[in-house]
Design brief:
- A hairpin with a 4-residue loop joins β2 and β3.
- The protein is globular and about 45 Å long.
- It is built from four helices and four strands, in the order βααββαβα.
- It starts with a strand and ends in a 10-residue tail after the last helix.
- 46% of the residues lie in helices and 15% in strands.
- Strands 2-3-1-4 form a four-stranded antiparallel beta sheet.
- The protein is α+β, with helices and mostly antiparallel strands.
- 32% of the residues are buried.
């Protein structure tokens, strides 16, 4: 399980408007779908969070997918007039090592996502 949080979405919405925020969400969602397998589930979990449920994947496979997502995120740029480069913070939890229930796994992934967020390089969202 992957928990993905779009960094600074509230600030993007406040500075550039919700249309730009929606574009960022679309770019992130397309990137996540493109980085996962056709049988993985990618879903929006909240305003600025996504959950990926990747079945039949071990810690090594999860690490590979995490690297692929991070690499692809570095390459995207929104097509809006603001040319933002969104970033995400990601937490990963693997069944059964990190937990045996959905709630256990989401709790571990959430904690790891916040650890990642603490070291994230945020995008510049200042008006141009």
């Amino acid at each position: 399980m992957f928990l993905v949080d779009v960094n600074n979405l509230k600030t993007i919405n406040d500075v550039h408007g919700h249309m730009t925020g929606d574009e960022v969400i679309k770019h992130v969602s397309h990137t996540l779908i493109g980085c996962t397998r056709k049988w993985d589930l990618v879903t929006r979990w909240g305003g600025d969070e996504f959950v990926i449920i990747a079945s039949n994947i071990d810690q090594a496979g999860a690490s590979t997918m995490l690297e692929r997502i991070e690499d692809h995120m570095l390459a995207i740029e929104t097509s809006t007039k603001h040319s933002l480069k969104p970033s995400v913070s990601i937490g990963v939890a693997v069944y059964p090592v990190d937990g045996s229930t959905f709630d256990d796994l989401i709790g571990v992934a959430d904690g790891r996502m916040y650890d990642d967020k603490k070291k994230a390089q945020y995008i510049d969202v200042a008006p141009m």
